[in-house]
Write a sequence for this structure.
């Protein structure tokens, strides 16, 4: 997932599209009993903004599969997250250009982790499981005698 700014400069253009499929080395989803379905699809545009700098406008598309945190039903949800970053050589406070290349892995990892859900639901209106009788309230009425 390396963007080569030298190659872009030699092409005579100031911007170019990109597409990668990416399988991160570490799990980027902190939701219990859920994982990102790989690969993550990365696309976007890189635009030169200076001799050793560029602007990246991208999107990561992926799905998370696992158990709903409320009702424990197996489910899979799709996500499309956008990211925009200015990258520069010798930038101690941001993403860097090194040897006229940009490695998108850290940018994508950070964007996915920041935008991943805190809880993983089968539906935003999931009713969960009754703590008394244990039925899935999405499928059945509560069977508790004392409601």
């Amino acid at each position: 997932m390396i963007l080569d700014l030298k190659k872009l400069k030699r092409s005579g253009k100031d911007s170019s599209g990109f597409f990668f499929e990416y399988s991160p080395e570490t799990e980027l989803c902190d939701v219990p009993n859920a994982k990102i379905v790989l690969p993550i699809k990365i696309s976007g545009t890189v635009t030169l903004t200076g001799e050793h700098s560029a602007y990246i406008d991208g999107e990561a598309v992926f799905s998370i599969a696992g158990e709903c945190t409320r009702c424990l039903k197996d489910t899979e949800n799709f996500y499309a997250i956008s990211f925009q970053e200015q990258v520069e050589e010798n930038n101690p406070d941001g993403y860097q250009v090194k040897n006229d290349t940009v490695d998108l892995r850290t940018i994508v990892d950070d964007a996915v982790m920041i935008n991943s859900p805190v809880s993983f639901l089968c539906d935003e209106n999931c009713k969960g499981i009754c703590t008394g009788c244990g039925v899935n309230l999405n499928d059945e009425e509560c069977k508790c005698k004392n409601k």
Remarks:
- Residues 59 and 82 are 4 Å apart (CA to CA).
- The chain has one domain: 2-115.
